[in-house]
Amino acid sequence: MRFDAISVIPEVFESYLGASILGRAQSRGIFEFHAHDLREWTHDRHRTVDDAPFGGGQGMLMMPEPIFEAVRCVSEYDQHKPYVIFFSPCGRPFDQSCAERLAHMDRIMFVCGRYEGMDERVYNLADEVISLGDYVLTGGELAALTVTDAVVRLLPGALGDSMSSVDESFSDGLLEYAQYTRPAVFEGMAVPEVLTSGDHGAVDRWRRKSAIERTALMRPDLLQTADLTPAERAFAEQAIEEHEGTAEVQK
User: What is the pTM of this model?
Assistant: First the structure.
């Protein structure tokens, strides 16, 4: 899989993408990432990519000409047509299902905004506009890294263990179950006995209940679309009621 990123500071990608899981996945040829300097598609001696907005206002906007030229040029660098992604608060919220869909693409191109924003006309180049959340970042580079990280984890061989990406939060619409490691007792807090029982069936059942309970207490909004049996949904509702009852007593 190929990623391209168009940015005014392309050097920021190298250190993160070269480390840990992503670095190993790149070295094994699972994906490749190419960062391109937007200023290469400017035509003045100052390599200008921004200008003041029409109608006045704070800050500077990225101009359309370099972006259009860069996207069209970089699109020709590979035989696969890129799926072009822009980032904006107006975009679709990014979640695990979006990452799973993007993991089936042959090639993704990110256009990373800076300054106050971009000329609205550049969004005509986008196949999709994504938002990471209801907050403002300095630029689109962090967003591009976040999406790349989430997508690469889903590529075959990226994590080594083929089940690692399946057994994670959001993979089945729920948060991941609670996990423990040695020591079995730490400062009076003991690991649930079932996890040391050697009964794999019991462990699987406990983990399922743990995932449902954690989701019910920490992210109840996820329960609306989670794939639960009637009994599991009743268990989740009971967990919420008990938690709310305990909280009320503590007041």
Answer: 0.89
